[in-house]
Write a structure and sequence with these properties.
- It is a single chain.
- The protein is an alpha/beta fold.
- Strand 8 (154-159), helix 5 (161-172) and strand 9 (177-181) form a beta-alpha-beta unit.
- It has helices at 6-23, 30-37, 99-106, 129-146, 161-172, 187-194, 213-218, 238-246, 264-292, and strands at residues 39-40, 52-53, 56-64, 70-76, 84-88, 92-93, 111-115, 154-159, 177-181, 224-229, 251-256.
- The strands form two sheets. The protein has a nine-stranded mixed beta sheet with strand order 2-3-4-7-5-8-9-10-11, with helices on both faces. A two-stranded parallel ribbon has the order 1-6.
- The termini are far apart.
- The protein has one domain: 3-Layer(aba) Sandwich (Rossmann fold), CATH 3.40.50.
Length: 293
């Protein structure tokens, strides 16, 4: 190689490296990072045969996202319930794998709609960032339009990734309350903590929307309840602390010292149920005060 050829070689190498850098960024390589973020279990994997949880029978419901994707959910209705909890689950499995958490949530005495994102369980399609947000909004719209529920009758509840979906729904739809269990502060933050290579990429090279819960909670949002295990190794506890510290408006943080990421119902079921009941009863108290005014 001649000396005069070196600039051309350097430019060529830089071009290749730049192409690799952008080509492998989370925003461009969507399928690669989608396979890291979403771990769906399609039907028939899971338990779809019992027909009930805690003796409470559920109805299979189907509805469509705005792009026509057919989605599936379980709708639980209880005597005396005043509100419906819209439950957005985490990134792995499908709705049938949430039975222990469902048992605890149902003990709060409210109705529950648990649904699967596209590609999970009986919901068709392939999950992607915008798609799962649209799916959450479609589940809300099912409650609002098919079930004729008012915004003050719906409580958004998100588990892990579902906490980010619930925050996104709260940006687009009104609700009585917002519950975030084992949620992360932002997708970029948790991504960089688990994959240090992600520090190479600025926020604009991550999939859009960014799933930035901190940014949402700093603004206007429904009354907020954060639930988190101190021993959570998947989403460290400091995420909950930061969300609580930066959130505006009415908020509360309930800590489970012995719980990890997914075992709160097993480790501290009574405390969990009491926290959820108390939060919902406070929403009812605010409602009564407003009606008197």
């Amino acid at each position: 190689m001649k000396f005069r050829d070196l600039p051309k070689v350097a430019i060529g190498s830089a071009s290749v490296l730049a192409a690799l850098y952008f080509g492998l960024s989370p925003r461009v390589a969507k399928r690669l990072y989608g396979s890291m973020l979403f771990h769906p279990y399609p039907y028939p994997e899971g338990d779809y045969h019992s027909g009930h949880v805690n003796g409470i029978v559920y109805r299979d419901v189907f509805f469509q996202a705005k792009d026509g994707t057919r989605l599936h959910g379980w709708h639980f209705e209880q005597t005396g319930a005043k509100r419906t909890i819209l439950f957005s689950h985490g990134n792995t499995g499908n709705l049938s794998g949430r039975r222990s958490l469902l048992q605890a949530i149902l003990r709060a005495g409210e109705n529950v709609l648990l649904y699967d994102y596209r590609g999970y369980g009986k919901s068709v399609g392939r999950p992607d960032m915008q798609g799962v947000i649209d799916d959450g909004c479609a589940a809300y719209d099912y409650l609002a339009e098919k079930c004729q529920l008012a915004p003050d009758e719906i409580v958004l509840y998100g588990e892990s990734l579902g906490a980010a979906i619930s925050c996104q729904i709260s940006l687009r739809r009104k609700a009585a309350g917002l519950v975030l269990q084992s949620g992360f502060a932002s997708l970029t933050r948790i991504g960089r903590e688990h994959v240090p290579l992600m520090h190479l990429y600025p926020a604009f090279l991550f999939p859009q929307p960014l799933l930035d819960n901190l940014a949402i909670l700093k603004g206007a949002h429904p009354p907020l309840l954060i639930l988190h295990g101190v021993k959570d190794a998947t989403v460290p506890f400091h995420h909950a602390e930061e969300m609580y510290a930066r959130a505006s408006g009415k908020k509360s943080l309930v800590v489970f010292p012995e719980a990890n990421h997914t075992d709160i119902p097993e480790v501290a079921g009574d405390k969990f149920v009491a926290a959820l009941k108390s939060f919902i009863s406070e929403l009812e108290a605010v409602e009564v005060l407003l009606s008197r005014d």
